Amino acid sequence: MGWAGYASIIRLTQLRSVSVLDVEAMFKAGKQHARRVLTRLHELGVVHIAEWVRTAKVGAAVPAYRYGSGNDAPRPGGKPGAFDRIATRLHNRLPELTHVVGMLRMISASPITAVALSEECGTSHSNVLPFLRHCRTIGLARVADWEPRRTGPVAMWGLGEGEDAPRPAPKDRREVNAAYMRRIRGVFIPASRLAPGFSWVQA
């Protein structure tokens, strides 16, 4: 399914309640994998059980999840069902999904550049930037701020939908040149300030 797929499922839970059958149908995932994804998101505190729904005329109700760490809706009848037993037998903790949740939590804590995020997560920047752009496309992330750099402002990413923060206007060339000259003057040491007998040439 990959990072983009996991991010899209998380986004869907922000919009409405999502059951196993929703993930299976919309993301072409097998039922067992869909269960594992939703259960893992629940374990990580990303989603909670908003309601229990019946997907057929017969059979037990299944949980439908919504984004956020709210209180779980009680299971009808209060008895564990097949879904609960399957969930407790899961051994694969879906490390890719856990990684995606970790990245989203980092951009939720404070705006961060794609390079800084890749360094914090130990992931290639060439993977992180397309992931962030996908999150922006689906309304899960946005450019929250811009970090000034000598080569131009760099996007800082934050969690949430909405318009990107406006990109700062480029500096006037004369201003850039003036700043460069100030830096040069700061490095240059006038001869009058050198110690008597000082020589740049070492004996």
Per DSSP, the total helix count is 8
Provide mean pLDDT, rounded: 85
Give the neighbour order of strands across the main sheet: 3-5-4
How far apart the termini lie comes to: 67 Å
Q: Shape, please?
A: elongated
| Integer count of domains | 2
Coarse structural class: alpha+beta
Q: If classified by CATH, what would the architecture of the largest domain be?
A: Orthogonal Bundle
Structural key phrases:
46% helix; 8 helices; Arc Repressor Mutant, subunit A; alpha+beta; 2 domains; 203 residues; three-stranded antiparallel sheet; two-stranded antiparallel ribbon
Written description of the protein model:
By secondary structure, the protein is α+β, with helices and mostly antiparallel strands. The protein has two domains: 2-88, Arc Repressor Mutant, subunit A; 110-185, Arc Repressor Mutant, subunit A. Helices cover 46% and strands 14% of the residues. The protein is built from eight helices and five strands; from the N terminus they run αααββααβααββα. It has helices spanning 2-15, 20-26, 31-43, 82-88, 95-109, 114-121, 125-138, 173-187; strands at 47-53, 62-67, 112-113, 141-147, 154-159. The strands form two sheets. A three-stranded antiparallel beta sheet has the order 3-5-4. A hairpin with an 8-residue loop joins β1 (47-53) and β2 (62-67). The longest helix has 15 residues, at 95-109.
